[in-house]
Specification:
The protein has helices spanning 2-7, 26-36, 69-81, 96-104, 113-127, 132-142, 159-166, 174-179, 184-198, and strands at 13-15, 45-50, 54-57, 62-65, 85-88, 109-110. The chain has 201 residues and is an alpha/beta fold.
Length: 201
Amino acid sequence: IKKIYSINPKVLFEVGTEEAIRYFTPDDLDRLLKDLSEFDFFDNIKYAVVQSGVGLDLGKRVNTGNFDKYRLKEFIRVCKRWGKLSKEHNGDYLTSEDVKVRFDAGLDSLNIAPEFGQLETLCYLEHMGDDFEQFYQLCHKSKRWEKWVSKDFIPHKNKEELIKICGHYILSDENFKRIKPNIDDDIKTRIKNKLKELVTI
């Protein structure tokens, strides 16, 4: 953070991490923010990551763990005390009711990027045609699927599943851009429809 801030003092930061990477308690986050408050860049920290007991299984496309609203509220109190916006990761594959509970509890933002990345990947899969094998090879080579599958997963026997898991990681790859179907309007429509589903309550 210090290095980036020295290069560009206008950059905004997010600090903390999701539960699958490192379990945090509200007190842990409080100590982290207290330590960071000693630095010049503290005002540039916009978001603090909060944890509510949930995780993500990208391979199975489900939200995992047990949501704890009271734990979430404690994290949110810490964020407010330090003047930071709260952000929960692993907000993917939730119902609109699940999302509403979080925001009613005071949550400021929710990361749903993996689910929407997979939504985009599914659109490409439907239109890939003869370039399917190349799409698979790019995904396989990325190795971004490895942490989401069991040890007995056999890539060449589960090509479509592998693509669904990590296709969104290679969408900016120059080799993918050369085979990318021209379906931007379809993708935008699906994303808008999904967002509408999440905010219906």
